């Protein structure tokens, strides 16, 4: 009897995951104007976040679409980190874990580099203590340029792995092991990333 309940629960979970995959992929996916969305031949619902909208025809060329898709996912990931960077200082200042000259308010944080004391990351001068906007800009451009150059030229993914979703060592929790769950997580990532970029 216990085995029968387990099988029923497993089948129910599989139906829910498959429903989620059908909801966001394929011809029957949700579209930006619902049933009034005009058909676009090259947007087939194959990729996460495809709601059939390309009024300017930017995705008509497959190579261009691939580049735009990669750029959107990378920018979405950075935007989500930026949104987290806006929230953490305010939360730390609110609960008294750290003190900031500007109260931890994200839109005032950058201006504190021009003050007499400079900018102390997380309110601690023992961490990064920035006093020169030129040095900070140079360091950021240099580090980001090196990281992006490494990623574009094969980077940590190595041979035979997807550049956007490499998996293996980059998925220590095994979130990509189940294809249905992984497809749903891709959609969640791009939706949250688009919201963060907004």
> Quick one: biggest sheet?
2 strands, antiparallel
Shape: elongated
- Give helix and strand order, one letter per element, not per position: HHHEEHH
Number of strands: 2
Sheet/helix structural class: mainly alpha
Oligomeric organization of the protein chains: single chain
The average pLDDT score comes to 79
Q: Can you count the helices?
A: 5
Rounded to the nearest angstrom, the radius of gyration is 22 Å
First CA to last CA: what distance?
51 Å
β-strand amount:
under 5%
The share of residues in helices is 40-55%
State the low-pLDDT regions, or none. 1-15
Q: In which order are the strands of the major sheet placed? A: 1-2
The gist of it:
The chain is mostly helical and 198 residues long. The chain has 5 helices and 2 strands, in the order αααββαα. The relative contact order is 0.11.
Structure keywords:
single chain; 198 residues; mainly alpha; two-stranded antiparallel sheet; 5 helices; elongated; disordered N terminus
Task: Tell me what the structure shows.
The protein is mainly α and 198 residues long. 50% of the residues lie in helices and 2% in strands. The chain contains five helices and two strands; from the N terminus they run αααββαα. The protein has helices spanning 2-24, 62-94, 106-109, 133-152, 179-197, and strands spanning 119-120, 129-130. A two-stranded antiparallel ribbon has the order 1-2. It is elongated, with a radius of gyration of 22 Å. The N and C termini lie far apart (51 Å).
Question: Secondary-structure blueprint of this entry?
Answer:
Blueprint: H1 2-24, H2 62-94, H3 106-109, E1 119-120, E2 129-130, H4 133-152, H5 179-197
Antiparallel strand pairs: 1-2
């Amino acid at each position: 009897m216990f085995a029968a309940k387990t099988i029923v629960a497993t089948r129910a979970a599989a139906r829910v995951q498959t429903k989620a995959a059908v909801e966001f992929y394929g011809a029957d996916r949700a579209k930006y104007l619902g049933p009034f969305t005009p058909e676009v031949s090259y947007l087939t619902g194959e990729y996460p976040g495809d709601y059939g909208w390309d009024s300017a025809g930017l995705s008509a060329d497959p190579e261009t679409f691939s580049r735009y898709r990669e750029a959107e996912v990378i920018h979405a990931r950075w935007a989500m980190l930026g949104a987290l960077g806006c929230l953490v200082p305010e939360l730390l200042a609110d609960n008294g874990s750290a003190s900031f000259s500007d109260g931890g308010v994200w839109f005032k944080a950058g201006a504190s580099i021009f003050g007499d004391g400079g900018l102390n990351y997380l309110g601690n001068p023992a961490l990064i203590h920035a006093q020169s906007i030129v040095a900070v800009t140079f360091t950021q451009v240099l580090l980001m340029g090196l990281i992006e150059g490494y990623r574009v030229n094969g980077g940590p993914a190595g041979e035979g792995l997807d550049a956007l979703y490499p998996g293996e060592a980059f998925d220590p929790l095994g979130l990509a092991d189940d294809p249905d769950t992984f497809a749903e997580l891709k959609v969640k990532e791009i939706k949250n990333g688009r919201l963060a970029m907004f």
